[in-house]
Amino acid sequence: xxxxxxxxxxxxxxxxxWSGPFxxxxxxxxxxEVIKVESIQRPDSFRFGTPVFDNCWEAYGPWNCTNVNKYSxxxxxxxxxxxxxxxxxxxxxxxxxxxxxxxxMKNFNLTYQVLREIRPDLIMVSAxxxxxxxxxxxxxxxxxxxxxxxxxxxxxGYTDGPPQNLGGAADPIVGMHAAFAILVALEHRRxxxxxxxxxxxxxxxLTCLLGVPLADYxxxxxxxxxxxxxxxxxxxxxxxxxxxxxxxxxxxISSDEEWEALCQAIGNPELAGxxxxxxxxxxxxxxxxxxxxxxxxxxxxxxxxxxTILQKAGVAAGAVAAPDTLYEEPHFKEREFFxxxxxxxxxxxxxxxxxxxxxxTPLRMRPAPKLGEHNEYVxxxxxxxxxxxxxxxxxxxxxxxxxxxxxxxxx
Amino acid sequence: MFAQALSGIKxxxxxxxxxxxxxxxxxxxxxxEVIKVERPEGGDPSRKSGPFPNDIPDQEAxxxxxxxxxxxxxxTLNLKTDTGxxxxxxxxxxxxxxxxxxxxxxxxxxxxxxxxxxxTNRSLVMTSISNFGQSGPYRDxxxxxxxxxxxxxxxxxxxxxxxxPVRAAGALRMVEYIGGIYAATGTMTALTHKVGTGxxxxxxxxxxxxxxxxxxxxxxxxxFPRNTGWSKMRFVFTPSVEECKDGYVGINTLTGxxxxxxxALMGMPDWAENPDYNTLTARLRSRGEVxxxxxxxxxxxxxxxxxxxxxxxxxxVAMVYNTEDILKSPQYQARDYFVEVEHPxxxxxxxxxxxxxxxxxxxxxxxxxxxxxxxNVEVYGKLLGYDKVDLVRLRQGGII
Lengths: 411, 400
What we know:
Chain A has helices at residues 19-29, 61-66, 80-91, 102-107, 112-118, 143-149, 170-192, 202-207, 211-220, 256-265, 280-285, 287-299, 303-312, 330-334, 375-382, 387-395; strands at 10-13, 33-38, 71-74, 95-98, 123-126, 196-199, 237-241, 248-252, 316-319, 338-343, 347-352, 356-358. Chain A is α/β, with parallel strands linked by helices and 411 residues long. In chain A, the strands form 3 sheets. In chain A, strands 3-2-1-4-5-6 form a 6-stranded parallel sheet, sandwiched between helices. Chain A has a 3-stranded antiparallel sheet with strand order 7-8-9, with helices on one face. Chain B is of the alpha/beta class. Chain B contains 18 helices and 12 strands. Chain B has helices at 19-29, 63-69, 82-94, 106-109, 114-120, 145-151, 174-197, 207-214, 216-221, 228-232, 256-265, 280-285, 287-299, 303-313, 323-328, 330-334, 376-383, 388-396, and strands at residues 10-13, 33-38, 72-76, 97-100, 125-130, 201-206, 240-244, 247-251, 317-319, 339-343, 347-351, 357-358.
């Protein structure tokens, strides 16, 4: 098997929740040695999403998904010894990534300026929500807040309703941008020996998806709004009810040929001759009537059966799949998008991977580590501490494997 | 101009619409030399898509094509001719990366499968983006943004429980951009591998799988069955978007502490610990009552004021911005986010700036999107050594 692309790259990962961890999980799967740094005083708050039970901080599905392919250590950065060891780790790391608000790294005195003294060619990613500078630099936020600020929520929702949340897409989108930037920075370092600081503003990365509406505003002073499931250049276009409760099928018709194919497929060929629907502008104007006609057909069909009929006829159609059972979807199954990993406490589970396949360097999935699982490996093997020194750290609660308190998310 | 991180890396972009071109654009923004290859007749179909200035269609003035192809050189080449294919192989020989997003069968039918191209250039990184990936039962299915969002499990998680579920970001075609970002990251991963080994490889991106990673919480819940109830919920409250005096705000309470702080902020401390309201599921049940109490408070305040008060109480509220609001936002402005790009057919257009600020190798705009075939002479001449007579002949033959 070919060498993994990022073999030999060590990443020191202070990031929490989803975006930073999503980035490093991918890089870990591509061969980087990712060392996740938490503390028993403040583990990643994202661990606490389950009811309280023994070892519950090791059981939360989303955390376990987002922290595959990593090593885990604990270090209390509020104690000088913890900071000292962290700096020692940075001195042998290629990349540091963090996504706190800006005051946190300042308080620890672990800013890029400080860390660069220890490791001159360091690549550091700082990803506070709104960026490292500007009036909001210290304002806390989460994915959904960034989607709202960046202009994405405004475009989402029914035509006759308020904007809606996207539900956290900001995190993986920004995480992938960060992974891209790290790879770009590694290439620059390879050429010049120079590291750099990557200042990630989540809202800025997201607004990069809005270049087209911004261009429209520049050209025509048009402000894009909500369209529900409709589309400016396609009709019919939407989700249609199928047999069963709350089961839907998406259909999108982009040309007259597809429209005719749809009419044939739903056993209503004379519809194609109906003048109300003969051209895209006509179909667009008469969408309400059109949706009712199509809905009547879909309602009599099983969703996947209807999808197959329409796809066979060359019509873009797709079941509105349930996210929590995607692993049963035949297409996802055959492509092995979900991979089974066995982890203590939760046993074998299916974990999503990435929408990427590499012909020569396949992704390597390892289950998420337990809190502090690699304290000995990292502090002993990598940093050269003796058994006695590691014991002292344990006794002083600078490292450990059990959180000192259970705090965090209980939505 | 100083060298950028990816200076000297040659990328052939035979992508069309959004996903492929956006991938190549991300590489171009950090210095790669991207050659956009279009068919001579009409070019990239995105040239036919608006927005256009004053809504007058013009293949040189598409806002969509402009945004996706800034920083690229543009050439034309007819891949449906033998000469076109021969020239394409010559280009591939000089390239580090090839980006394409045709349906999976197209490249093979042109004789340009990864195996064929590998024979021409062993170190080529070929990045293929498609709706469903290069394999699997849905491989050749037709799809658009809403179909991908649906099959990827994203649409199911959004909308009122009493109505049809609703897709994300309306007409934006967000999924294709996301595919472009994944493709750029995958391409850089493969380039990193190539540096170490001299070996190229085939990178493929599946848009429907990209969608499933966007819906992270519900998809991830499947790994631990105890949590599936949560993932079946379509509408959640709060977190949710709510109307205020002059627009909308996001009330983004994710933890118990957020709800307690929100109750303090809104002057309803008696609800902080009340089990009828202090969890997500309870609030959803008592939605009417919560609105009754929350709405007057919201409607008295502008989004600016709610955002400011939220900061003081450390409740993650956010203003729901539209494109006009974003342009006026003090945070984007303080960081000099937006850039003005001058284009011969479009005039001056305000555009998003860098996706990330890199201290040593910043993102740059070097040139606007190319006119159709604008750099034929430059690329075919300088890179492949064709002279004027050759180019006239190719033009007359409908090759370029």
